[in-house]
């Protein structure tokens, strides 16, 4: 496995083929996350064997899922034509199908991707469960980004972990996109779209504090109205929803890294170890230390 990291949040990992991987029906070939700043050249990094330009486009030998969590841009394939890409959109790339994409210079974007191959995705294509003409997904579920982050966190925090688990997670993403496709075919109200965007922003910023009135304002909503509608839709206020995401991230780091609790609190933007411990115990019933030592005990 080769790994290249360009910043604290970006990563690019490429996996050598393992002789037993094909037996599972899906093989994970690479995974990554890259934040492109406004005005930054794209792609920011050209790796040997993966170089390409927007002008010429590209044809892959494998399948790939690319999801955009921030920013805007364009996507074009021979099967879909040109599509405008916004935060929360994703596209599926097929072997042998020409395509190209890039962020707008004025906005940049944050992209997440997995590249995979195998008998299972090939059969899904053959049976037309997935097709190149329907490879663009708008307003995908935040669960999709969560799965992509799980793959990334698992790879970066434990490079010795077998990649087959990550490959199965890639199949989960493909299944989630199929569910998203069915969802977006039905009528979605404007408020549902706003609440979806709010959840996506909270997921994207699960490692830091968020000012909820500012978030509501960025969506063009008044905070009191936003808080009421968010609670009606989810059962909890937006601040608590975001806090649950941050505590979930803390659990992951406690179980899957050797970071001290102080370092975990810093990584997730809590003001101190004491503050994290107090909130963690309030929401889970046990301290971070006790959770790390006995994670599966009630």
Helix percentage: 40-55%
Strand segment tally: 9
Rg calc: 20 Å
Mean pLDDT: 84
Which geometry do the CA atoms define?
globular
Might you state the CATH topology name of the largest domain?
Answer: Jelly Rolls
CATH architecture classification of the largest domain: Sandwich
- Which class do the helix and strand fractions yield? alpha+beta
Helix run count:
10
Give the total of domains: 2
Can you describe this structure in just a few lines?
The chain has 298 residues and is an alpha+beta fold. It is 41% helix and 19% strand.
List the helices and strands and how they pair.
Blueprint (H helix, E strand, L loop, with lengths): L1 E3 L6 E4 L12 E10 L26 E15 L3 E6 L3 E4 L5 E5 L5 E9 L1 H8 L9 E2 L4 H16 L6 H21 L5 H15 L7 H7 L4 H12 L3 H19 L4 H7 L5 H12 L3 H6 L5
Antiparallel strand pairs: 1-2, 2-3, 3-8, 4-5, 4-6, 4-7, 4-8, 6-9
